[in-house]
Amino acid sequence: MSKQWTRHLQTAALSASASALVPPVIQPFVPRATYNVPADIIRSYYLGHHAAGLREIATKLPTIGLVLECRDFRVPLTSWNPLLERTLLGPRRVVVYTKSDLGAENVGARRALQELHRSRPGESAVFVGKGTSKKVLLKAIRDAAIEENSLTGMRTFVVGMPNVGKSTLLNSLRKEGMGLKSKVAMTNNHPGVTRKLGTPVRILGGKVDDPAGLLGEGVFIVDTPGVFMPYVSDGESMLRLALVHGIKDNLVPTEIVADYLLYKLNQWDPALYAKFSAPTNDVREFLQGVAKRTGKHHKSRAGVDLQAAMWVIEQWRNGHLGRYILDDVNAASIAAKKAELNVETLSMNQARKREKEMRKARQEAKRGG
Fold first, then answer.
1. Which of 27, 105, 198, 262 is the most exposed place for a label (fewest CB within 10 A)?
2. Is 187 helix (H, G, I), strand (E, B) or coil?
């Protein structure tokens, strides 16, 4: 053994001995500042019955005295649909932010949205959620009907993006307004249940509810199909809609939705998932912790626990991983959304052409790589 190699070993030993006396430096966790949206995720969910429903809404709009437009409070700007915005010009509108209990941590967003609707003529906002009384909304509907002063009563549309809670709202208004518990609109926890305009359902009126006859024959509400956008240019908006179940599961791969959820959880507070994992930006590590805790193991080819991914997504959807909203709601984001509404929306054919061009570009990029 050479003297040089001996000195190297002695130095290494002394260094190791010294470092053993010094506690290791724990680097603070740094969450991802931005999310890199995969280029190949789906950008449309505009189906045939969406287009047909939109045409029927436009045709019957002149008979409507009030529009209830539902938007999911967890994505209040992303679920503001430019197609509906242009179609619904005319009647007074109440924007109903559904599932507001699932965004309870965002008080500032609620104030900003209220200010937005106060500034728009003929428009107001109401926030509803699970267990929330519908009295404020029913009063707004009753006031509009009295102002309309029609002997035949007032017809009302309930409209919005897929799976924002339109049918659930209709059933709730009928129950609270008329005292009738049976459901008249079919509901389910996935998009696409309502596929055509429903039969008008009375939610207010009658001798007991309106003895003075101020509402004429009453207030009738018509359920409508959810209407998506032909094309979503912002990929992160598509991820938000997938996370709130605004499109069918698996159209965006479950592991990507779970990864986006992890990104948002880290922005809010990594302690939200502390029982599953230490703070991490690695979705595999996060889902391994979920699978270990819950016993939900079913790995994909990429090594992702898909059962754990679906389970944790549902936990967030049900409010068990924090009650936050996905959109940033402030003066700047609201102004940006207003500007977006003024941009011409792609038709279905244009959207399909755009998707085809993007697929071709991705394939060429892969071949070039």
1. 27
2. coil
Are 225 and 53 a contacting pair, CB within 8 Å?
yes
Domains and CATH numbers, the chain: 48-223 (3.40.50.300), 235-363 (1.10.1580.10)
Cβ atoms of 220 and 153 within 8 Å: the answer is yes
CB 151 within 8 A of CB 217: yes
Going edge to edge, which strands form the sheet with 154-160?
123-127, 92-98, 66-72, 154-160, 219-223, 201-204
What is 288-334 written as a DSSP string?
HHHHHHH----B-TTS-BHHHHHHHHHHHHTTBTB---SS--SHHHH
Q: What is the mean pLDDT of the chain?
A: 84
Given a cut of 50, whether residue 11 has pLDDT beyond it is no
Residues 103, 222: Cα–Cα separation, whole Å: 27
Q: Record the tokens describing residue 55, joined without a space.
A: 């045409």
C-alpha distances (whole Å) from 118 to each of 91, 125, 200 are 16, 8, 29
At what angle are helices 135-148 and 166-178 packed, to 10 degrees? 80
Q: Which two tokens stand for residue 353?
A: 């052409």
* DSSP-assigned states of every residue in 63-109: G-SEEEEEEETTSTTTT--HHHHHHT-SSEEEEEEETGGGGTT-HHH
Q: For residues 155 and 91, is the Cβ–Cβ distance under 8 A?
A: no
Residues in contact with 334: Cβ distance below 8 Å, sequence separation at least 6, in sequence order: 77, 112, 116
With H, G, I as helix, E, B as strand and everything else as coil, classify residue 118: helix
- Whether 261 shows a pLDDT value over 70: the answer reads yes
> Is 193 within 8 Å of 186 (Cβ atoms)?
yes
What is the pTM assigned to this prediction? 0.83
43: left (phi over 0), alpha (psi -120 to 50) or beta: alpha
